[in-house]
Specification:
Shape: globular
Largest sheet: 6 strands, antiparallel
Order of helices and strands: HHEEEHEEEEEHEEEEEHEE
Strand content: 35-45%
Number of strands: 15
Oligomer: single chain
Helix content: 10-25%
Number of helices: 5
Distance between the termini: 34 Å
Strand order of the largest sheet: 8-7-12-13-15-14
Length: 246
């Protein structure tokens, strides 16, 4: 909160951010591009800065605020080939999956995307990707969850296609404008109604929701609801949470 106050986003300790951006921060993703004005950082005065924000934990578990400004030159990670980096930059690939070794020699799987707004490569540990338990009430299979976690497109039983995206502040893209995703969070199922979703990479988007959307939506009032204000009329999102044991 202290860092957010320095950026003018929490004057007097009261957070003043779009609800979608707050949810993006709390779920480990990046906000949309924000205009930060009249900043005093490390002895320098910046009249204005456009940047995205995210939260990260250090090795000791402390949460820190990161700013992602617009970079003049992208710096691809060393494990990407020149061809892979170029295709990501040009928008010819949605992502690249890599298995890399950390400083201790342990291997881990990462997903690399390119954020064209910040001119930056984004690297995500696939083990940290939150995978939906169900889409429009249709449970995902173990194979579908694995494909989703690796950034691959999957199709559910009612024809809805979804794909994980680290460059999208909601973390999910679809060939439908709206859908209901069920996620396992803190031991309970959270139902998220997404509207105004961005399209899957290089795929057309259908105006009509999947066949099971209305049925899944009708079932939501039966569970405990947590209040969340919609971001805009074009991009609403509501949360419904079922507490364990209820």
């Amino acid at each position: 909160m202290e860092d957010l106050s320095k950026l003018g986003l929490a004057p007097g300790g009261r957070l003043q951010m779009d609800e979608d951006d707050v949810q993006a921060l709390l779920t480990g993703r990046r906000t949309d591009m924000l205009r930060l004005e009249n900043l005093y950082l490390d002895g320098f005065h910046l009249p204005a800065l456009d940047a995205k924000l995210s939260l990260r934990r250090d090795p000791e578990g402390n949460v820190g605020l990161l700013a992602h400004p617009i970079y003049k030159q992208p710096q691809p990670p060393a494990y990407l080939t020149d061809v892979e980096a170029e295709k990501l930059e040009k928008g010819e690939l949605a992502n690249v999956q890599k298995t890399i070794a950390d400083g201790e020699g342990d291997k881990r799987e990462v997903l690399v995307e390119f954020d064209r707004e910040t001119n930056e490569f984004i690297i995500v540990d696939t083990e940290q990707v939150t995978t939906p338990e169900a889409i429009n009430g249709i449970p995902l299979t173990a194979a579908q969850k694995e494909r989703y976690r690796k950034g691959q497109e999957i199709e559910t039983g009612d024809g809805t296609r979804v794909q994980y995206s680290a460059t999208d502040k909601r973390g999910i893209r679809s060939d439908r404008l709206k859908l209901i995703a069920s996620l396992l969070i803190d031991g309970g199922i959270t139902y998220m109604v997404f509207k105004g979703l961005n399209a899957i990479f290089n795929k057309p988007q259908q105006q009509e929701p999947g066949r099971n959307f209305d049925k899944a939506l009708a079932a939501l009032p039966k569970v405990q609801r947590t209040v969340q204000a919609p971001a805009t009329a074009e991009d609403e999102k509501e949360n419904y949470t079922q507490t364990p044991g209820r």
